[in-house]
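Hey,

The postdoc asked me to send both predictions to you directly instead of through the lab channel. I've kept everything plain text so nothing gets mangled by the mail client. Protein one:
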Amino acid sequence: MSLEVKTEGNTYTVTYTGELSDSMMGMEDQILEAVNAIGSGLTEVALGKFDTSGEFLNIAGTKYTVQQKSEKDYQTPYGTIKIARNVYQTSKGGTRLTVHWV
């Protein structure tokens, strides 16, 4: 199986390559696998649109800058996906933030 998701603005193109077995039961499993792979891939792209681009944030007069990218698991209807998101912190340390733009 291979999956490729290309995006241009709000338009996406999905290319999925897989095989179908000789039995109907096997085909149903493979179709489910394909649908879950496509759903996971598109969900990853969608969630990525809600991450920041790394600019500094000013929250209540406190400046936060990107400390690192942190990979986390996200539960989706298609299975668990891993996404690396920007993590913010002040120069003094303390609370770390992952920002979700809506």
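Protein two:
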Amino acid sequence: MPNGKWFTKDVKHALQGQRLKVDIANMIFDTSETIVETNKAAGDYKNFEFELIKYFSLVPPISEEDFNRMSINDITASIYKTAYKHYNDKIERNAATAFPLSKTFTKPGRPL
């Protein structure tokens, strides 16, 4: 659960367009870290898989054997890298889809 002070600051940045990329990266890292720490401590790879799908729509980039063998920091780094790349790819796909439409609606002389 987000700390109220930090959550409010992140929302303020998002509304003002400041540091948005950094805030999103931090949120992805914090979520990755929480998922890994919780499930590594419980030794629960199945719930780890479930939470990655639930929060990031990702299939785990590591196997159950790697999950049991790797450190929390290494797993977190792997999950963060994969989730952040997935996020950026999604943003690029959305922009590529939306840009032609935005050009259509912003043609000179076309009423809004």
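Summary for protein two, as requested: Helices lie at 4-16, 20-42, 45-56, 64-69, 72-105.

Thanks,
C.
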